[in-house]
Amino acid sequence: LVGVEPVDAEIIAAGKKLKVISKHGVGIDNIDSAAAGARGILVKNAPGVNSDAVADFTFGLLLDAARGISWGDRALRSGQWPRIAGESVWGATLGIIGLGAIGRGMALRAKGFQMRVLAYDVFWNEAFAKENGIERASLDEIYRESDFISIHAALTEETRNMIAMEQLRKMKPNAILVNAARGSIVNEEDLYRALNEGVIRGAALDAFSQEPARDLPLFELDRVVVTPHLGAFSKDAMTRMSLAAVENIVQNV
Question: pTM (2 decimals)?
């Protein structure tokens, strides 16, 4: 039963009686599934149980980054009284990369703010998109047209560093990038440069390429909201995730 710690081929080989690796979560990029499969070991996860918790949290990150809520909190606590002019969320355009369970949750929350929602997904859910007024868009269209871009893709070799300086330069100068998926989808060095150079306005990050994340240059920037991978951590979601992860073991041993 594992969380985000790496489970590589060496660890798997050491499990002489190992039958099941059950992820306490959804993404299994920290598990060497090929090594497990070669030994006949099942790799299971708990999809869907935390999608509402993550969508709630991600939309909170978006609001925070848009209006400078954490920035204002830090300033007031340090004795300042700044006037922080934020970006409007109501009626703005949200681009969603990955229209799975969490991406769909973000789209529904965005509709409550009368946002125009663009989305990209390799496996397109036409019925959901049509029912909820979601516009299918290419990645380039999302980069060019969105005021906010929220990432909800899995980490694969195709998505690793998929957002680097080339993509950031396609975005609006007032754009805010939100990543509560996997840190390595965004090139953190390029994001830091883009924010310093005013290529985009801000970012909100709940995931990092190395976790726990320590002393990143991004932490120095007021226009960046950072949290320690908390998206799935609501009490309800954690309970359901724990039950699902244990059931995956019980049912397959």
Answer: 0.90
